[in-house]
Structures are given as C-alpha cells and as structure tokens.
Amino acid sequence: MAISVYEIVTNKIVEKLEQGTVPWQKPWVNCNTAVNWKTQKQYRGINTMLLDPGEYITFKQVQEIKGAKIKKGAKSEIVVFWKWIETENKDTGKEEKIPLLRYYKVFNINQCEGIESKRKEVETYEHNPIEEAENIIKGYINSPSFSYNSGRAYYQPSIDHINIPPMKDFRQVEEYYATTFHELTHSTGHPSRLPRIGITSATAHFGSEEYSQEELVAEIGASMLTGLAGFIDVTFDNSASYIQSWLRKLKDDKTLIVKAASQAQKAVDYILGVNYKENN
C-alpha cells in the first residue's frame, strides 16, 4: 500500500508540472512576526532568528514621535543587512561591487513609552486535529524538538529543532499537517538519521543547488505523507507549485523529481519506522 502511494504521488507531481502550476501561496496567516513598527514590513533572513516576534523601532524613529521615549534600562536588539560597496579590482582595474555586512539597533515598542501598536488583529481559525496525521507525527521515533511560534516554519539542523506556526494560524487544517510533514522530512536529513547534503553541507545556503534539491525532497516527502494521511487532494496544487518554484532554480530539470522522490521515500519510511533499505 505504501509503495503504491509513493508511486501515485510522484507520477501525479510530474503530471501536474507538465500542465503548469499556479503561484505558491503561504498556507498560514502572517502574524506575530518581527516587523518594523513604522512600515509594518517583516524583517527577513537571519533577522527572523535574531528578533523575537513584535514591532521594532529605531532610536531616530522614536525621536520623531511627539511624546515618545525609550524606557530607562531598555535593551536594544540588532538588525543586520548587506550594503554593496563599489571598489576597484586591483587585478583588473575594473569597478566592482562587494557586499559588506552592516547592522543597526532597534527597540521593541514594549520597551518604549508613548508608542501604540499598529498591528491589525489577525484572524485565527478553529480546527479539529486529523487523527491519522497525528499518528504519523507521534510515531516518528527519535524526532527533533518542536516549537509552535507564529510566522515561520523551519527546521534548524544545528540544534535539531522544528518550528511550525500553530494550527490556529492555518486556513485549512490539512495545510498545517502538510507544513509539518515538510519540516519532518527535512529533519530526516540530519547526520543522526539519513544524512543528506542539503541538510549536512555548510554550503547548502538558500538558493544553492543543494538547498533547492533538498526542498524538492521535503515537499515530495510531505506530499507522500499527506497521501498516507488521506488528504493529498486538498494540498496538492500548492505543493506542486512549490516544487515548480525550486525546479526553476535547477533549470527546470524534471528528471530530478525521480531522484528526489527516491530520497523522499526513504525519509517517509524513516518517519514511519519502516526499514527503508528493504525498499531500495
């Protein structure tokens, strides 16, 4: 039964990619993230890990607000960014741009006086857990640690930890489990489980070939697990569009789907406690 689901999912993904896909949609509402108070824009990249959820403001921005001030003893946080510097290449004599890592300090508005939050109330959703999906998650022996903070879904290999937005942040409960399955699949690439270069390599940065291939594995693995849990039809279109977005970074080489599906099957078997070597 499991093998047939794997094959059905893989074939269905390839078929969908041939038909074309709609743009990927983030399945959870964007709430309780770290944002700039003035613009309400979400901080990106490494800053999402440096800052706790909340609204942040610079010292200069505080000074611009009548009656506002920073509380005595307040502690600032840092926001980092890349600034491109123009310089001359000593070997070629040509002008070139090099990135320079810079930072500035911000304060959470909770550490200020006279500043009101600009955040709009975000809608949340009530869902009933899906028993079969819960059983898959609970059955994952030697699983990583979990947290449920809003705004981001990620697996952090260095501490073997997964964060998933809480169920109430998802419009569809099936998308909550699909997102969880995606990160669970990533976690199987940890050195203590089924080492995969997309997880173990120091060069597997965002957008790299290794990273892109790992995203294929994780999303195909998530699709296989949603198939086993009985609700792949609900999440499939979004999964296919996510896969397509990473294939574009790999020059639309659809042959990589077969390779990624093989690794995804091993990952799913590991999560399910199946001896994956029997299926090679």
Order of helices and strands: HEHEHEEEEHEEEHHHHH
Task: Return Rg in Å.
Answer: 22 Å
The DSSP helix count reads 9
Please bin the fraction of helical residues. 25-40%
Blueprint (SSEs and pairs):
Elements: H1 2-19, E1 34-36, H2 47-50, E2 54-57, H3 59-63, E3 69-70, E4 77-88, E5 95-108, E6 112-113, H4 131-138, E7 145-147, E8 154-156, E9 161-163, H5 173-187, H6 197-200, H7 209-229, H8 232-249, H9 256-272
Parallel strand pairs: 1-2, 7-9
Antiparallel strand pairs: 2-5, 3-6, 4-5, 8-9
Helix pairs in contact: 1-7, 1-9, 5-7, 7-8, 7-9
Can you tell me about this structure?
This protein has nine helices and nine strands. By secondary structure, it is an alpha/beta fold. The protein has two domains: 2-29 and 125-279, no CATH class; 34-113, no CATH class. The longest helix is centred in the C-terminal third of the chain and has 21 residues, at 209-229. The two termini are 16 Å apart. Mean pLDDT is 87; it is low at 276-280.
